[in-house]
Amino acid sequence: MHGIRTRLFAAILLAALVPAVPAALLVNNLLQRSRDASLERHLVDGLEAGMEESRLALATSREALAFAAAELAADGASGVVVLDVDGAPAPQLAPPAAVLDAARRADPRPQPVGDWLVMRRANADGDDLTLVQPLPAGLADRAARLADALATAAALRLDRGAILRGYVAPFLLIYAALLLAALGLAALLARGVVGPLHATARAADRLAAGDLEARVGADGPGEVGALVRAFDGMAARLGAQRRELARLEKLAAWRGMSRILAHEIKNPLTPILLAVQEARGSYRGADAAHAAVLADCETIVREEVEGLRRLVALFADFARLPAPEPRDDDLRPLLDDLARLYGERLLVEAAAGPQPGRFDAEALRRALVNLIDNGLGACARAGRPERVRLRAAHADDALVMSVADEGDGIPPENLERVFDPDFSTRGGMGLGLAIVRGVIEGHDGSVSRESMPGRGTTVTVLLPIPPQEAR
Amino acid sequence: MRARGILTASMCTLLLALAGGGPALAQAPRILAVEPARTDSLLVCRLRTAGLPGAEILSTLRSGLSSAVDLQLEVLDGRGRAIDGRVLRLRLDYDLWDEVFSLTHGDRGVTRLPDDAALQSWFDRTPWLPVAPLAALANAGPVRLRAALRLHAIAPSERERLGEVVSGPDGQEVSLGLGKLIRYFYRGGAREGGGATAVSPPFAPGELAHARD
User: Fold this and answer.
1) Which of residues 139-158 of B touch A (CB under 8 A)?
2) ipTM of the complex
3) Could you report the per-residue pLDDT of A149-197, keeping only the tens digit for each?
4) Model confidence, pTM
5) Chain A residues within 8 Å of chain B (Cβ atoms)
6) CA-CA distance, B162 to B169, in Å (whole number)?
7) B164 in contact with A at a CB cutoff of 8 Å?
8) Given CB 3.0 to 4.6 Å as the disulfide criterion, which of A79, A356, A386, B177 pairs with A379?
């Protein structure tokens, strides 16, 4: 079973990993190509050209400022002199303080500070001459933007490894997280598949060891669920068949034994009774006490012989129990007959008029009598009035009869066995209900019972009424 | 014969590797000396170095990117424990327009350096760098000064800026997370330009000579 789980896991892992490897290689290759594309070189060339132009413009401005500075120095100018773009003094211009500060620390080579060009040199008298001149509009800004773009392009070239890592590592991280999630899902799926298979294997082992109650119990969708349901169904059928087989075997054994007992006991009963009667009749003496003993003996033997005859009749009934021959009939005469037979002890509840059904009246009578007798006996054991209720009704193409008493009831642990031929809690042979079951099952019917100890028992008999065309 | 051929080839390979590694070793940044001195209130030091800023950093600078040098200056007591110190970050730039180097040092502002030689000269013999207040070392006894430098071919601040470029603008919530991830891993892959460490001989802070250029 571990093999299936491992294979499932491995299959999902492979399904997740196999496309990932070429995908990662492809991503890496595409990134490399995007870097290697000549487009980048063209862009950098363009930027370099732009920067060169800016440098030339700066150089021109520098030369102009240096020339103006030389003239002003020769004229003896000193202090801070602000020039306009054309090199003429422009005291109306107000450079920012930071520019002026940088200008005072500048050297003779003009240097750009923001949008200004500054320089400092000595005039003809050796005094400081500080010059500040605005650069052509936008020149410094364009140069700054070009420098920024060139630096970025350089980073893309020089820092390629780190940039690739910046792209590939998140991909791998996200992929690993997705892979972990997929594997977790795979583990859940594998458990969903393998779990019922494990349970089925265990149940099969128990079944093989003779535990007919072994069931998987778990249910689920799909093929595995179908397998589990099929197994449970098979186990249930196997158990039912095994129990039925055991019951039939026991029934056959009891019938065989009943036949032998009926024969072996019945035959000597009449000679025994006759012998005792002869012994009593042949006594001609005057001993009244002896005559009384003989009379008592005859009575006792006759009663016991009668008891044995009834038992033999029961055995004979059970042994000979003929297969019922159901036919279309009316239950009403049988109900009336039973009502007459039992008088007030039987309360018959049925709709007025004919009660059509399909049954063997003689066999059904035997079964109902046994049930009623059992019910009356239960009432007597419970110390209640002997009274049994017999209901008959039609339901779903079946004739349903129930015999209910308010007797001592049947303990739950015995409820399943009361129809077995060897089971009795009253010291009898337990054949009465076995005969009932034989009769009813001979009608393709069913018999069920409900009981509450101390409250009473209801036995329900269901005889099917097949459709007319099926008869 | 075949074994001899393999041996010869291996030796040649080794020699070539050593020959290739020679310049690299020569260019590795080194601190030749850590020279302590004092001002009225501060313990200062000057470093004599070699191999700085190095070809890689120069190349990076000339491409327009910023580099950085981290300097960790520590005062060690007699048992070698750091009792005071300071970390300085020097940012190096090259102005592609003006074609001059600049060295930004938090305390000293910006120093403009016109060419490679000026930049190298700055590192060969640095200015006096503040280390610790002398008052804090009054009872320290003999101490030593340890200087450690670490080069960042691309300055961390530059990498921050590039991280924004590489990860693209953050928009929706999903791309926000992805952008952060890209920046995180990009910054994590910083190119380092090596480092060096040196320790001065023991000295008594109170007996140091005044710093002079």
Assistant:
1) 153-154, 158
2) 0.75
3) 999 888 888 877 788 888 888 888 888 888 888 888 878 877 777 888 8
4) 0.57
5) 51, 54-55, 58, 111-112, 140, 143-144, 146-148, 150-152, 154-155, 157-159, 161-163, 165-167, 169-170, 173-174
6) 12
7) no
8) A386
